[in-house]
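User: Could you go from structure to sequence for me? I need the amino acid at each position, not a summary. Structure tokens:
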């Protein structure tokens, strides 16, 4: 079989880890396809320059913007678990801000996922966005104080509509 570098190159991976079929039809994992230089960041196996992250104008220091940050592929999800998305009454409902990477423009805010989308925020300090998992087009957001015992909210990206609709809630 070809070496690790050749497998990474065949898959178009500049950096990070990949799992792919080699020339012999064997599934292999390469744990390091290289590293980025000059302060670039490895995103989706591609070295990308660091660009300033545009912070939404409505963010205040009390919102805990950036409490949890995760990325996968072109997506960067930033939790603000104490953000008050609609009511402004100092309840900690929480918001997740989604950014998409554009090679020409850098990180651009693309979506704002609010816990209060169904007016569910009742002022119980839900803290939606305190933890986030992102895997390709699926995002799981924790609201650890929602309903007393916490809940997980699952969203799936709809590329046709360019939206992240909620698809499940787990108690």
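Assistant: Here is the amino acid at each position, in order:
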């Amino acid at each position: 079989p070809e070496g690790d570098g050749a497998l990474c190159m065949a898959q178009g991976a500049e950096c990070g880890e990949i799992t792919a079929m080699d020339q012999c039809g064997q599934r292999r994992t390469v744990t390091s396809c290289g590293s980025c230089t000059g302060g670039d960041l490895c995103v989706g196996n591609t070295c990308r320059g660091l660009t300033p992250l545009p912070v939404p104008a409505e963010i205040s220091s009390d919102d805990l913007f950036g409490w949890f940050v995760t990325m996968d592929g072109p997506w960067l999800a930033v939790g603000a678990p104490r953000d008050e998305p609609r009511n402004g009454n100092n309840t900690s409902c929480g918001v997740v801000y989604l950014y998409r990477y554009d090679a020409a423009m850098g990180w651009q805010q693309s979506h704002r996922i609010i816990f209060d989308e169904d007016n569910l925020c009742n002022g119980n300090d839900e803290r939606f966005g305190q933890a986030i998992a992102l895997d390709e087009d699926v995002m799981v957001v924790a609201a650890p104080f929602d309903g007393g015992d916490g809940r997980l909210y699952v969203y799936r990206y709809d590329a046709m509509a360019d939206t992240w609709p909620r698809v499940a809630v787990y108690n």
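One structural detail worth keeping in mind: The first strand starts at residue 18 and ends at 21.
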